[in-house]
Structure formats: C-alpha cells, structure tokens
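[agent] plan:
  1. take the single chain provided in the ticket
  2. run structure prediction with default settings
  3. attach structure tokens to the ticket
  4. add a short note for the reviewer (M.T.)
[agent] executing step 1
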Amino acid sequence: MAFVPASELLSRTSFHIMEILEAARHVLIEKENFGCLSACLGNIHLILQEIQADGIEDPDTFRSAMECLENEVKNAKDLMETYKIKSRFYLLINSCFLLKTVKQMMGQIGQAFSLIPLSRIELSVEVRHKAMLLVKQMQYVEFKTSHAVEEVANKIKTGLLDYRESTNFSNERFLVDIAEVLGVDLNPLSLKKELEKLKKEKEVAELEKNEAEALQLQRILALLSWAEIAYSRREREKQFMDKRGKNILAVILSSCVIAPYTTAFFVSTLGKLSISRIK
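[agent] step 2 finished; step 3 output follows
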C-alpha cells in the first residue's frame, strides 16, 4: 500500500464527511435522526479543519489515527450512498435496521476519532473539550423511530397478516396512510414509480441470494400492489362520477326552456332544477 501523508488523509476524510452530509440531506425518512448524524459529523469536520490550520506535531501517530478514521468515514459514506437511492417503501420497511446500522456507524466513527492524539496538537481548551464531548455523544447516542413511521410499519405488519388470510385484501386507505408518511404523491404515476423501485430491489436481493429479504419484499410488493389497484380503481370511479355529474348538469341546463321574466338556477344539494318568477 502506497504511503499517504497525514495531511492528505485529513483532507480526504473531511471530503468524505461532506459527501455524507450531502447524502443525509436526501434520505427520505427519519430526517430527525439523520439530522443528529449530520450534526456530529459536521462538528468532526470543523475540528479537523482546526487541526489542519494549527499544524501536526506528531505526524506518525496522527497518521495512524487518521487512517482508521478515514476508513470508518468512507464505510459510512458508501452506506449512505446506498440508502440515498433506495425507494421510500424500502426505507420504511427497513427503518429499524437502518437506524441500528446508523447507530453502530456513529459509534465506530466516534471511536476512531478518539484515537487522534489531541493532546499533542496545538488546539484551544474549548476545542479539546468539544472533541471529548463529541466522542461521548457519538458512542452513546440513541436513535428512535418516529411515531408516524412506527405506526405505518405496524400497519404493514397487520396488512401482511390480513393479506395472507384473504386474497381479496384491497384496503386502499392503507396505501394512502403510507404515502402520506413517505411524502409520495397520491397519483397513479408516482405510486407506480415507487412500486417499480421496490420491485427492482427485490430482484437485487434475489441476485445477491438474500432469500429472506427477497421473500419479505415479494410479500410487501404484493400487498402494496393490491392496495394500489384498489386505490386507482376508486380514483377512476370518483373521476367518472364527477364527470358524469357534470355531463348530466350540462344536459339539464341545455334542455331547459326558460320562460320570460323567470330565472333558473340549479340547487346542487337537492340535485334538481328550481324555477322562480321574478316579481
């Protein structure tokens, strides 16, 4: 392995952190938890900038610590890039595992950051104290699934049970609740797009021989597809009835012969035409 100077390792690690912060901005659920991750990594970035500005007195020891930190940060960056392109449904289904992974990732980064010999670097007391608190925070941070995500995840579990018990499961409200939490537009095109992403993720799981995940995604995909069909059918029926009502109204109004000195108006709540003579 080629020798990499400590200063270059520091610069590369800072760059990877900025990439993680950018990827975290685009994760579609658990924004509060990822905000905590961003805050911690942002503080590490600031401290690394302070170290870079003040100079390094013990480059060998610092270099060894930076190798470890860069490796952990790079792993985190690769993980975040993976989650950034996942479908909203996939992130929701795996939200608990996702937060557990992020917690572990933060602990490992905090541990690697603690290896930096800050006592041998010219830093202010304030920065040293901040670094010490940051390490403690990253090692003991707790992530909790938001109430909205947890509630929808439970609905999916219940939906899977109902779907297995009845092949006629078609609760369109189920899909509406999920879409509202995930911020998915309730139109056929957007829903189909998200379901197609989930289908591709199932195919990837099959290619990677991840049978448990592939089976889970297949069941959830079937469940969501039934709900999507029911919702789309209901929306088409609603649009048809709205259009039909407008057509009927147009026919009624066009066929009415209004006598002189009278005015006609349509009472929508009663659904009939009322004629009143002008006095």
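[agent] step 4 note for reviewer: The first strand starts at residue 262 and ends at 267.
[agent] ticket updated
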